[in-house]
Amino acid sequence: MEVATSAHNTDLGMKVFLAALATGVALLFAAPQSTSKKVELAHPFYWAASDPLRGDWQGEGGYVAQVVRAEDKILSVPNLIPDADDVGKYQANIFRKFDVPNDKPLAALHGVLSGSTVTFSGDGWSGTIANGHFKGNKGDEAFDLQHVTRMPPSMARNRRRERLYYSTERTWTRGPK
Fold first, then answer.
1. pTM across the whole model
2. Cβ proximity of 70 and 54 under 8 Å
3. Which residues contact 70 (CB under 8 A, 6 or more apart)?
4. What is the pLDDT of residues 114-136, one digit of tens each?
5. What CA–CA distance (Å, rounded) separates 162 from 101?
6. Burial state string for 136-170 with b = 16 or more CB within 10 A and e = fewer than 16
7. At CB < 8 A and 24+ separation, what contacts does 116-123 make?
8. What is the pLDDT of residues 61-83, one digit of tens each?
9. Would you state the pLDDT for residue 24?
10. What is the largest CA-CA distance in the chain?
11. How far apart are CA 83 and CA 70, in angstroms?
């Protein structure tokens, strides 16, 4: 009878040991891993100076362009100050159409402001922005573009949804005639 009691005590001791081990492991993994808290900082926003040359250009010739000032490249990078050498310099990316996913520019032109005219060149193209027109050419190919203000495609889709919702809601609230 003493042998049976001893075996029972050993089994009970093993069960208590395993339960304590399992509890310890669970507490170890449930405990916070580090005591320092991560602080999220808001992305800095920098105002871009108003510039009538910056933006989208569209018109004749089967091309469109997006023009940015050279110093705009750093506006989204914290703690950088525009380089004095970039003042008055522009980059124009030439495309066939706007808003094509993963589209790469056909040409990247670099230009310099002189008076009220920007003169561009690059990738075999040359062009100027003067008197509200961006004219460019490469051999027999040419374009004449004007500055346009476009609505982002996502906003246009949301506006269509809003119009549909409001028109549907209006018929529901008006009721039968």
1. 0.60
2. no
3. 86, 89, 90, 91, 110
4. 999 999 999 999 999 999 999 99
5. 25
6. bebeeeebebebeeeeeeeeeeeeeeeeeeeeeee
7. 118/53, 118/90, 120/90, 120/92
8. 999 999 998 887 776 666 667 77
9. 74
10. 110
11. 9
Is residue 53 helix, strand or coil?
coil
d(CA 98, CA 78): 29
Lookup: tokens for 146: 């004007």
| 166 three-class SS | helix
Closest CA to 123 of 102, 101, 104, 98: 104
Give which of 133, 161, 155, 138 is closest to 67, Cα–Cα: 133
Please give the Cα distance from 55 to 47 (Å, whole number): 15
Q: Is the pLDDT of residue 107 over 70?
A: yes
pLDDT digits (tens, 9 = 90+) for 18-53: 888 778 777 666 656 666 667 666 555 556 667 889
> DSSP assignment of 87-137, as one string?
TTEEEEEEESSSS-TT---SEEEEEEEETTEEEEEETTEEEEEETTEEEEE
Amino acid letter, 4: A
Q: In 3-state terms, the chain is what percent helix, strand and coil (to 5)? A: 35, 30, 35
